[in-house]
Amino acid sequence: MTRATTKAPTAPRPAGSAGAPVHSDETRTRLLQAAGEVFAEVGFRRATVRDICARAGANVAAINYHFGDKEGLYAEVVKSGIALGLQKYPVDMDVPEGSSAEQRLRGFVRSFLYRTLGRGDHAHSGRIMLWEMVEPTPVLDAIYRERIRHLYGGLERIVRDLLGPGATPPLVRLGCASILGQCSFYRLGESLLSKIQQSPTSNLAPEQVEALADHVTRFSLAGLRAYASGNKGGRP
Predict the structure, then answer these.
(1) What is the CATH superfamily name and number for domain 83-229?
(2) How many CB atoms within 10 Å of residue 167?
(3) pTM of model > 0.85
């Protein structure tokens, strides 16, 4: 008579959604997507690892493995979202080299609006950047060094060219701030605008984004040209 043997049970393997292991690319992708949605909705400070993991169908071990902690996950979400948006909508929108300042301005505005208001996997990054404006985190410093400083420098050159000889540093700063303010407000003020104008300003169709880009460009050009033609001293 042989003696029956029992096999020791193996410990369950930590898994992500649908049994995907912690270290899989699928789990990492799901975490990035879920985290982007949560951070966009409530910001970094109010977002919880529990909510992110529940939405991704993963566990905390997966976040620790891929990103170290919540801060590391947030940094990757922000950087990858910005990179994806710029890859899809380059800051110059492929305006040919040597184009006029007017054409370059429209390219800049179109890129900005598509990245913050358009549809696609990058869409959450626009809302996350608004959270950074009102509740900045240490990630903002890194984004500034890696991306924002370069993008803003391009806008400064456009505004300086449009102002011509009257392009004093204060007036260039005001011009840049006005353009950025117009572009940002459609996202920043979307809740109020949707009530006042009864028209949504996020997740817009391409033709809606193009219409806004045309308006912001024309409005900005009119103001800058007025300074250039009648205010050589650069004072309001």
Answers:
(1) Tetracycline Repressor, domain 2 (1.10.357.10)
(2) 19
(3) no
